[in-house]
Amino acid sequence: MGFTMKHFVLGTAGHIDHGKTALIKALTGIDTDRLKEEKERGITIDLGFAHLELPGGDILGIVDVPGHERFVKNMVAGASGIDLVMLVIAADEGVMPQTREHMEICELLGIRNGIVVITKIDMVDEELLELVREDVKEFISGTTLRDAPIIEVSSVTGKGIDRLKSVLSELIKDLPEKDKGIFFRLPIDRVFIKRGFGTIVTGTAISGKISVGDEVSIYPKDILAKIRGIQIHGRDSQKALAGFRTALNLQGVEKVELKRGDIVAQRDSLKVSDTMNVYLELLPSAPRPLRHMDMVRFHAGTAEIISKVALLDRKELRQGDWCYAQIRLDQPTALLAKDRFVLRTFSPVRTIGGGKILNPISKRRRRRLKALVRDLEILDRGDLKDVILQHVKIGGFEGGALSDLPVLTNSPVEEIRRVSERLEAENRLISLDSENNQSVHMDIFEKARRQILDTLYKYHNKYPLKWGMAKEELRSKTIGSDFPKLFSVIIGRLTDQGEISQERDLVRLSSHQVRLGERLKKLRDEIENTYKKAGLQPPTLKEIMNQFRDQHTKEILDLLIKDGMLIRVKEELCFHRLAIEDLKERLVQFLKKNGEISTQKFKEMTGASRKFTIPLAEYFDNTHVTVRIGDKRILRKA
User: Fold this and answer.
1) Strand (E) positions, 423-511?
2) Strands 438-441 and 429-433
3) CATH number for domain 526-635, candidates 1.20.120.330, 3.30.750.24, 1.10.10.10, 3.90.25.10
4) What sections of 284-404 are H helices per DSSP?
5) Residues of 9-24 as b/e, b for ≥16 C-beta within 10 angstroms?
6) Residues of the chain with confidence (pLDDT) below 50
7) DSSP code of residue 203
8) Strand spans (E) along 491-548
9) What is this structure's pTM?
10) What's the half-sphere exposure (Cβ side, CA atoms, 13 Å) at 524?
11) Residue by residue, what is the 3-state secondary structure of 221-282?
12) Residue 195: how many CB atoms within 10 A of its CB?
């Protein structure tokens, strides 16, 4: 099947028994009442589907929706993906309750184009028809169909049908080409088994394209399947595009695993969530204000999910007003930003409002609601640059991943990448992980950066005699404990910019210098001289602490070790640098002359007990001066 023609979907709307199904049959020759119960009762219970070939070759898909108030939820499912509405009003009854509710649903779903059809004109005289005309004009004057053409027809006599086809053909010419969207998505409205083929799902493809042989994911269960076959309006096709009534033959999935409301989508494209942040408006016709945490029926695509509405900045939303809110679903689903939804009361059931998804993968919030409302204002009104920045900022110290942004912005990956790269070049986004395209907002980066610098500053004030702070300790006392990638990037930047210095496992502010007063200089000299006099039989650190009972003794010891005046050979054992250098020179000369040295001979060389000799011998092994072979040692270079 070719796709050179324009392709749009028309949905009917209107009260029960106003002749929608008969009108479609008169237009297309297709009876959309497919259920036995529908035939017996003479009313449409579930969705019906047809298509109309218009002059010029364009094909118009038609979704026939039920008008009975008990089946309005099926009407909402059918309205998903339609491009224009055909509002049907019977000449013998005029505007009725479901006429109004269907029209409200279309407006909530953002359907702005359409046509009004007055049916059953064969059943009334001219005087009554004139009254109905005025009733219809007055009704649509307050809707998005205020400028829509009004056509009068009889499905029985055929009067007006040709004119209706002609007007539909003209309407399609003026409609903008359907937005193809970023992913293939088809909300399922029917699931059945066809002998010899297996599992079949139908729906209106609302975005993207898919081909036979492609793999798809079915959400919210994230079931993997393969496209075995495609039909468009009953004809075999190699691909499906946005705007077509589509049947997909799925391989690798059973009928029992699927249901109406599930979404067939490009593989691994969507994110599942049970919490959505939204723009919400309450209809003027709602029976009462919507209260915080009211239970409602949430309709999006073909899904109906019991939910609660958390109002973020008020206790109740009055009729005709709007606000930002959080929808908390009983069951997860997979939607994109900018998707439309409808809310209906839990019981008794009627349409009360709807709106637009702003964040389809939100987290449930109980605090900082004012900040959340500010976030949503930007997501609602900002351009792509603003929205990307805000979502990354919402991610906090963890940042945001490029892989989440198509769902969060409903924008193409290439456009997101281009804008993100520009924001990084402007230093408004900071890359944390180029491999996973993880970034953090500059404001968050600066907050973390200040935290690290402040922690170092306080450490230096508390321990002025210490050269620096252990990097691991710094990490554990700052954002680094939970966000190591961010910590690593900040430390790298601060080092490159010269704000901090690193040596081995220590970090310090570059401006920090150890300055000793006269008293501490004297203490340092006394400790150093103690080690110098002790030679190769020095006191342990514990003994030094007992000998010099000063609160800064430990810091002075660390400073002497850091400056290289003392050499730590073992945890509790340090030697003066001069003693180590003298012993090293004698040891090397001995090995050059004799080739090897035994432990006993080394002990004689030091003149010290095994308590000191063994650690010293191991020190020279560890510093690559000697190599131990059995109970002897040789020069490593040799």
Assistant:
1) 429-433, 438-441, 469-470, 500-503, 506-509
2) antiparallel
3) 1.10.10.10
4) 369-381, 384-394
5) bbbbbbbbbbbbbbbb
6) 1-4, 33-46, 67-72, 74-75, 78
7) E
8) 500-503, 506-509
9) 0.77
10) 19
11) CCEEEEEEEEEECCEEECEEECCCEEEEEEECCCHHHCCCCCEEEECCCCCCEEEEEEEEEE
12) 5
Could you say which DSSP state residue 540 is in? B
Token pair 């020190």: residue: 619
Residue among 3, 36, 33, 5 at smallest CA distance from 19: 33
Give the pair of three-digit tokens for residue 24: 């479609």
- Residue 467 is predicted with a pLDDT of 82
Place of tokens 């702005």: 112
Rounded CA separation 492/498 (Å): 10
Q: Do domains 382-515 and 526-635 have the same CATH topology?
A: yes
| Conformation bin of residue 476: beta by default, left when phi > 0, alpha when psi is -120 to 50 | alpha
Q: Give the helix/strand (H/E) hosting 122.
A: none
371 DSSP 8-state letter: H
Please say whether the structural domain 7-174 has been given the CATH code 3.60.130.10. no
- Which of 52, 56, 61 lies closest to 8 in space, CA to CA? 61
* CA-closest candidate to residue 323, choices 350, 300, 343, 304: 343
φ, ψ of residue 586 in degrees (nearest 5): -65, -40
- Secondary structure of 419-437 in HEC code, one letter for each residue: HHHHHHHCCCEEEEECCCC
CA distance 574 to 616: 10
Residues 6+ apart with CB under 8 A from 284: 319, 320
Residue range 382-515, CATH number: 1.10.10.10
* Alpha-helical segments (H) within 67-125: 72-79, 97-108
pLDDT tens sequence across 76-127 = 554 556 788 899 999 999 999 888 888 888 888 888 889 999 999 999 999 9
Residue range 185-266 in CATH 2.40.30.10: yes
DSSP state of 583: H
CA atoms within 13 A on the CB side of 61: 32
- Three-class secondary structure of residue 579 per DSSP: helix
Amino acid at 538: P
CATH of domain 273-370: 2.40.30.10
Peptide bond before residue 220 is cis, with ω within 30 degrees of 0:
yes
What is the spatial distance between Cα 503 and Cα 490, in angstroms, rounded to a whole number? 16
Please give the single-letter amino acid code of residue 411: S
Sign of the torsion angle spanned by Cα atoms 615, 617, 618, 619: positive
Taking each helix axis as running N to C, give the angle between helix 97-108 and helix 126-140, from 0 to 180 degrees, rounded to the nearest 10: 30
